[in-house]
Amino acid sequence: MLKGKEIVLGVTGGIAVYKAVELLRLLVKAGANVHVVMTKSATEFVTPLTFQTLSRNPVHLELFNLISEEKIGHIALADRADLYIIAPATANCIGKLANGIADDLLTTTVMATRAPVLIAPAMNVNMYRNSIYRENEARLKAHGYLFVAPACGMLACGYEGEGKLQAPEVIFEEAVAALTPKRLAGERILVTAGPTLEEIDPVRYISNHSSGKMGYAIARQARLRGAEVTLVTGPSCLTPPLGVEVVRVQSAQEMRDAVQGCLPRIDVVIKAAAVADYRPKTRAGEKVKKSQESLCIELEKNPDILAELGAHKGERILVGFAAETQDLVRNAGAKLKAKNLDLVVANDVSQEGAGFNVDTNIAKFLFSDGRIEELPMMGKEELAGVILDNVETLRGEKRGAAKG
């Protein structure tokens, strides 16, 4: 999502400068062209050569330094930026920006840029809590500047509390969000993900191979597009996407209850979870001991969450998934109709690159109007974006029909 983007990374003086090196690496790896601006004090912690080597661009240090004969340096940097990140940002830098002071290359380029500015503060906890600093931050936010709140923890000065530079991965995620068009702003989206787990006894259960990767990718992409996202997830080792509400469940019944509890405030439901169709009729209170050659477990049906949603869909958009091993289109089409879906994402999990626990998928989209769209193999993050493109279209069509 950052491929080809021009990003200016401003680095101010503080012990957290070393984290800016890792942030730079993440930005470059994602395909961004990064131009680093360092204050004089920042160079006391990490040399410009480190940033120049990783960015493959000259590091900018001086205010009166021409990039070329035709261009004034600070204006050229400001004009080329799609996004300006300041990490770490000291209280001094933030105070100058809040009061319109531009006395070095970093503050001058920020004042001159028309790009969004993302600020990641790092300072002593007492400085961070200081009322003057808080006023400066509030003032910048009122002018549209974006902030990544610092983490809480042990600080280099020996104090413990707020003020620790946020993790590079978090700043990176907020950078991606800043550059993602908010086409789903105002939408409330519920995504289910992962497997469910149906207990046989205290140590055994019935489940499936779902990792949750597809649902987590959809939740992340929806949040990046500005939606208010609730992720109802079965057991998964994945880290939930930043900025989404997470509801953790275990069984199909727990997932049903969680979904129904959230439903009144939801506009779009995307059911990517692999929900167990059956559960043991009786759960043993103690571990079932191995005492005979075979063991019979009577199963009973779990609630069909998707069918219940389809029966009371209203004006919501409802997206389901069909993981099949044969007759993909026929089985997915039957699911689409029986459960009153707007879209079903079908994939043959027996195909290489389309099953569980992989980072790619091969999908067919079946729509309620009879259309079928076949997609090539792609990463699950990319597929999540395509799914949400269609959700945007479906929401627009439904609104248009309601107005008509």
Automatic annotation (TrEMBL):
One of its GO terms (cellular component) is phosphopantothenoylcysteine decarboxylase complex. The active site is at C157 (proton donor). It comes from the Bacteria. Residues 1-188 are annotated as: Phosphopantothenoylcysteine decarboxylase. Keywords: Decarboxylase, Flavoprotein, FMN, Ligase, Lyase, Magnesium, Metal-binding, Multifunctional enzyme. Binds 1 FMN per subunit. Its cofactor is Mg(2+); FMN. Residues 189-404 are annotated as: Phosphopantothenate--cysteine ligase. One of its GO terms (biological process) is coenzyme A biosynthetic process. Its EC number is 4.1.1.36, 6.3.2.5. Residues 184-392 form the DNA/pantothenate metabolism flavoprotein C-terminal domain. It catalyses: (R)-4'-phosphopantothenate + L-cysteine + CTP = N-[(R)-4-phosphopantothenoyl]-L-cysteine + CMP + diphosphate + H(+); N-[(R)-4-phosphopantothenoyl]-L-cysteine + H(+) = (R)-4'-phosphopantetheine + CO2. The keyword Transferase does not apply. Pfam families: DFP, Flavoprotein. One of its GO terms (molecular function) is metal ion binding. InterPro entries: CoaB-like_sf, CoaBC, DNA/pantothenate-metab_flavo_C, Flavin_trans-like, Flavoprotein. Pathway: Cofactor biosynthesis; coenzyme A biosynthesis; CoA from (R)-pantothenate: step 2/5; Cofactor biosynthesis; coenzyme A biosynthesis; CoA from (R)-pantothenate: step 3/5. CTP binds at D277, K287, P303, D304, I305, L306, F321, K335, K339. Residues 5-173 form the Flavoprotein domain. In the C-terminal section; belongs to the PPC synthetase family. In the N-terminal section; belongs to the HFCD (homo-oligomeric flavin containing Cys decarboxylase) superfamily. PANTHER family: HOMO-OLIGOMERIC FLAVIN CONTAINING CYS DECARBOXYLASE FAMILY (PTHR14359), PHOSPHOPANTOTHENOYLCYSTEINE DECARBOXYLASE (PTHR14359:SF6). Catalyzes two sequential steps in the biosynthesis of coenzyme A. In the first step cysteine is conjugated to 4'-phosphopantothenate to form 4-phosphopantothenoylcysteine. In the second step the latter compound is decarboxylated to form 4'-phosphopantotheine. Catalyzes two steps in the biosynthesis of coenzyme A. In the first step cysteine is conjugated to 4'-phosphopantothenate to form 4-phosphopantothenoylcysteine, in the latter compound is decarboxylated to form 4'-phosphopantotheine. This is Coenzyme A biosynthesis bifunctional protein CoaBC.
